User: What shape does this take?
Amino acid sequence: MTLVINEVESALVNNEITQKMYINGEWVLSEGNKSREIINPANGKIIGTVTEGSAEDAKKAIEAARKAFYENGWMNSKARDRAELLLKISNKLEERKEEFAYLDTLNNGKTLRESLGDVEDAVNQLRYYAGLATKPHGQTYDVPDDIQAMVVREAIGVVGIIVPWNYPLVMANQKIAAALAAGCTVVVKPAQQTPLSVIRLFELIDEVGLPPGVANLVLGPGRTVGSELVSNPDVDKISFTGGTDTGIRLMKSAADTVKKISLELGGKSPNIVFADADFETAVDYALFAIFANQGQVCSAGSRLLLEESLYEKFVPELVKRAKMIKVGPGWVDGIEMGPLVSEDHMNTVLDYIEIGKNEGATLLCGGNRIVEGEFGKGYFVEPTIFGDTTPNMRIVQEEIFGPVLAIQTFKTEEEAIELANGTAFGLAGAVFSTDGAKAQRVIRQLRAGITWINTYHPTFNEAPWGGYKQSGIGRDLGTYGFEEYLETKQININLKVEPSGFFEGNKNN
Assistant: This one.
């Protein structure tokens, strides 16, 4: 791993080399020759420079994707050929998994063990969708006529993919893999803060020889590049993962061209712990639910709902263990929580902590930026827990997207369900109880798309990912994620070829 780290750093530190974007099979600089410095959130150092795209660059990429789909035949490409290309990418990614993991750790701040898990997921996503591409998808119908009725599934066309900074590689990859497997062409916009691993992914795409225009990468801000993707009538679908406010704006813009759209948005997910839960397991997962990836997870268990009789035993142990979490640069052995992704985001999280204090919640631990020594150059925030919260508090209702946990209490099963469903979000939720029937009852009442019993956070490429309410529409991953990139076409074949006789007066005498 040390060799890989040295190679990656030596490739990045030469800031005279501006990393390019990928349009129509070529690596290009932006039209306006703008660039952006990429910052390591653990120490504030510049780790690279990338070209900064514009709406004009996005238009070029869209034009290339549309030409590749309609004129150059990608829409009629064979599923087996698409599958083989995805498998080639997956093999190359697996060979370079340590490099990709270290890139995400440098660029995003997450721990190296988390980044390695992300790369392994990305490899498996490519292989999963390579397999799915060649599987049957369609139906035939026995209808009351001399007609053979059937349904076929066809690629939706040009897809704009907009991904967030918290899982830079894996979230871009899962959408790209599904869209290409379905036969779509793509234009991908990564987050401005974290483009490095996605740029590397496109190097692999270039190496395997995807036809020009099938996969395009445009770097740049959402207000220009993202807006062009959503408003351009030549884009057939948008697949977006990010904040709910942004998702609402994208949905409104997509309506102007009746563009198909899938949105995986924010969350304020409840983690419900009953008094009969296995104590050690529940404490362990309560920590993991909120502090994994620095709490920068859309499905984070950011609300801990404790049965009232368990509070006095559970909370002291939870606080004690939260204070023991090892915070530091993600590439250092033994580190359990890294920095937040940027200074701006760190300040947003710190502002929410102040809001919690002002609202009357009790700060049980954390609440501060870590500034001692080298920490002062990075964007580190202590694991933070609030008690004595009420349902109307902003720290209970709004997504903070950081290492901040709000504890609520309940007395009855019904009250737990009411509190759990008491936000505008509905992405995820969990129940901890040794009473299997109760756990099932409660989980069935949660208005959430991803749920767990006696665990938190495990995800699988085979299973759909998405939420209820303001947590979004549509799904990623699994067969459901694959179908997001397919249109449904009905075909009727007349088996008795003769005049219909509908207009009797038109018959020849």
Observations:
- Residues 2-265+471-491 form a domain with the Aldehyde Dehydrogenase; Chain A, domain 1 fold (CATH 3.40.605.10).
